[in-house]
Amino acid sequence: xxxxxxxxxxxxxxxxxxxxxxxxxxxxxxxxxxxxxxxxxxxxxxxxxxxxxxxxxxxxxxxxxxxxxxxxxxxxxxxxxxxxxxxxxxxxxxxxxxxxxxxxxxxxxxxxxxxxxxxxxxxxxxxxxxxxxxxxxxxxxxxxxxxxxxxxxxxxxxxxxxxxxxxxxxxxxxxxxxxxxxxxxxxxxxxxxxxxxxxxxxxxxxxxxxxxxxxxxxxxxxxxxxxxxxxxxxxxxxxxxxxxxxxxxxxxxxxxxxxxxxxxxxxxxxxxxxxxxxxxxxxxxxxxxxxxxxxxxxxxxxxxxxxxxxxxxxxxxxxxxxxxxxxxxxxxxxxxxxxxxxxxxxxxxxxxxxxxxxxxxxxxxxxxxxxxxxxxxxxxxxxxxxxxxxxxxxxxxxxxxxxxxxxxxxxxxxxxxxxxxxxxxxxxxxxxxxxxxxxxxxxxxxxxxxxxxxxxxxxxxxxxxxxxxxxxxxxxxxxxxxxxxxxxxxxxxxxxxxxxxxxxxxxxxxxxxxxxxxxxxxxxxxxxxxxxxxxxxxxxxxxxxxxxxxxxxxxxxx
Length: 558
Known about the structure:
With 558 residues, this protein is mostly helical. Helix content is 68%, strand content 4%.
């Protein structure tokens, strides 16, 4: 009994984090029959798998994700095919991933309090929490990545063959969810290749490499030999992107500045604590006249600030992005904020980016840097480096892609803050929980609205109306109305027409010829006459009652 009590006390923040996860699930409510963003295509992939027994990614899906399809298919087979069962499959991965992240942090010498705080911070991060309630590939990939990193790290430290094999299975799952997972075997290989005992440990390291290498080669083979439409589309644009060497090199220099700003946004509670610690360090250096430390600190901060500022300027004048965040696709929540709110966030995240750049430079420049790291701890840095290299040369960079860097960032920042996390554990936990509550309310509001809009179209479809006569939400149009497939049949597939044509031309034309229209306003579109057929109420992010309306076109003979 005493042992159990001591274990519970030692890992109190881990249990708190898991309890918060459960409470968040209950509050947001994953049991909603609606897809979210693009996960309708992944859902159709699972449906095809269940109906035919064959895996075939939907043509709209850009990721080749057999692991996630089979994982979600398992839940759909047991619980019945639904968006809810697929969402539950993601949440179970989140549960496992958060536990793995806590113990990965412990492997990196963070104590139980520090590890618990950054674990709560990981789940509270806006896009991590938000996409935990979807069947998108982003969070399943992140959680498989974390599990693999933890198993590899412990396996290398203990020289355990069994853990190494388990790590290779988890790494394969990550690769078979998103191709970016090849960063895992790349990191393991370079860790082995440059180790002092390279020959003696060859069998051990290849026990952890064989499965992910096979998975990576399979991804390469299918991507070249049997790509779906979207994969061929992206490969074509990627090849065109590489022809503009100036843009590629410019983005390689610019993107790290944006990545750091977004990572600061995703981990705001730790930005505030890092700022407090830096203020203390500057004050101590001046009080105790540490002549060697203060100039070095000022130089590092100055260089970091100039780099972030140069990135903001380059992004505005060369890449034509706004002065204010958001700088990246795809979530448009930040764009709907007022100008002063966006300005405040830009200022905070810019300071956070400068602090994080400073902390990263310190990690590799001081006496406790790379040379002092045990081999097992180096793996996190190597895998994150290969993830970064992929993202720097990939033609598209989106906000969701950046959550893959959070495990590395939170552990590095946690190590830097050290005892300060213990000293301010209560206030840091409260800040993380405040961010979590805010993101949970936001996520619940988005899902509630998506559910109501979906339900509005479903009410008409249930009466026997052909889906092509209904213009619902973008996800409904593609899932039931076959909008994407119809568009594909209209274009010259060999030219791989830009998907912008789908949004700018095809969908507006479709909406003008439909009989039923789902909209957030009961007013008729301009110069047209419609009648309200039904309405579906819902509670928005601010808990205000809103409605989606189904309008029916009034023709001349009615």
